[in-house]
Every structure is written in C-alpha cells, then in structure tokens.
Amino acid sequence: MGTWRTSARRLLRKSPVAYRVVRRAEAAARAAVHAWREPPVRALPASLDEQAEWQEELYLLDDDPWNFERSPYEQGKYQHTLDVLTADGARYESALEVGCSIGVFTEMLAPHCGELVAVDISATAVERAEARVAGQPHVRVERMVLPNEMPGGTFDLVVCSDVLYYLEGPSLAKTVDAIAGTIRPGGALVVVSWLGTFGPMSGAELHATLRHLLPPSFRLDRSERRDVDGPQGIGYQLDVYRREPSAAADGDGS
Ligand SMILES: C[S@@+](CC[C@H](N)C(=O)[O-])C[C@H]1O[C@@H](n2cnc3c(N)ncnc32)[C@H](O)[C@@H]1O
Fold first, then answer.
1. Which of 23, 40, 218, 227 sits at a 20 to 30 Å CA gap from 202?
2. Are strands 139-143 and 155-161 parallel, antiparallel or unpaired?
3. What confidence score (pLDDT) does residue 247 get?
C-alpha cells in the first residue's frame, strides 16, 4: 500500500493539476469518513455482511480511521485497560482480542500474553495489525466475523474494546454466548465501550445488557467509568467480568 501510494504520488507531482484533483478527492474521502464516525450521522448497517463491507470501506479510505495511534482519548483508554489487566504483574497464558482493528492495543497487550489471538471483521485492518506485530510468533491475527466465526480453543482473557455495540440483538446474544464459552474457569472478560450511541445500542445500554446476557458463573469484578473527552465529549466504561474458578461444575451451560 505504502509503495503504491509513494509511486502514485511521484507520478502525480509531475502533473500539478492532477495532483490537486487527487488531493481534493482524498480530503473529501477523509471528511466523509470523519462524518461517518461522528454518531448519529449515519445509521449502522443492519446485517453482518453490510457491517463487514462498511468497516472494510473505512479502512480502505483511511489507514487509521479512528485515529487510534495518535488520539489522546484512545491512547488513554488503552493505557487504562492495560493497567487494569496487568495490575500486580498479571500475565495471560492465552488471550483473545475481539475487533483488534489495526493492532494498536494488540501490540501493547502482546508482551503480557503467552499466546494472543486477535481478530477483526476487516481484512485490511487485519493486514495492518499483522504488520504491526510481525516478528512476534506468539501473536496471531485473523479475519473473522463474530458471531458467525470464532477462534477455536479457550482463553484466560478475552478483550472486547469498542466492538460489541456494533452488534444488534440476536447477534450480540450469540456473540456473548460464544465468547463466554471460550473463557476458562477463573478467566476474565474485559469490555470497554464509549458510552455514546453509535450502533444499535449505546455503550451505556450495552454494559447494562451484558450483566443479564452473561451466564451466572460470570461476576462483575470491576467497573470503572471515565468521563474523559472522547467523541462528542463523552467518555467510556471499562468492566471486568471474572468467570468463577469452579464454573466448570456450575452447569451454567457455558
Ligand atoms: C471501533 S473499532 C475498535 C478497535 C479497538 N478494539 C479499540 O478499542 O480501539 C471496532 C473494530 O471492530 C471490528 N468489528 C466490528 N464488528 C465486528 C465483528 N462482528 N466481528 C469482528 N470484528 C468486528 C471493526 O472492523 C473495527 O476494527
């Protein structure tokens, strides 16, 4: 992508008019992406196929559509999440990150995991995440559409940061069920969500709903709300659920 762009730019610089036209088109595309990002400008796609197509378009138009690499809000959210996850030097034998995007948090989490599987619905995002964690054989990045696809195996940590509110009712229930089923007894589920409304439900509604959707063997261990300056001036919530260590015998179906 980078090489293609560099050569294209070199060619365009030879023709100032064409260069200006292309730069204007690029700026318009970027503005459209930013407008899309600002809820409630655009209703989210209904089906998972449309969702996949929409996310893919975002990543094709912008290398980092949510500015994860540079936004102080996103960086603060990642650091907060990491601090909570690694308190007291905690390490994870096997972790799953759902909706990993371009892998900014994946890279931060990787040193604290024996194995890390990171998945995203967008093939382009997956490519960028793979490049970011290249040379770390214990990290695997895959394109997957939850809940239709789920990585095999079990995990002692699953991270869902700003992803579950994209899913509407039945897909959300199916996803939560599938995720809960992969968490080992004693393992943790961390859900972080911007509290505004972008998807079928707000982040605040999602966090309230999760308390009912998760099987009884999951108890809320920690819940922190940060009223920091995120999109639209709204902050986020971070919830940590822990699966009871004796859950295998609970017969809760997970
Ligand atoms: C807003 S980004 C959040 C990225 C990162 N987790 C964070 O907190 O900054 C949401 C990501 O979830 C992915 N995503 C959305 N729906 C998904 C699904 N059904 N299955 C897998 N990934 C999905 C999108 O492609 C996007 O990269």
1. 218
2. unpaired
3. 73
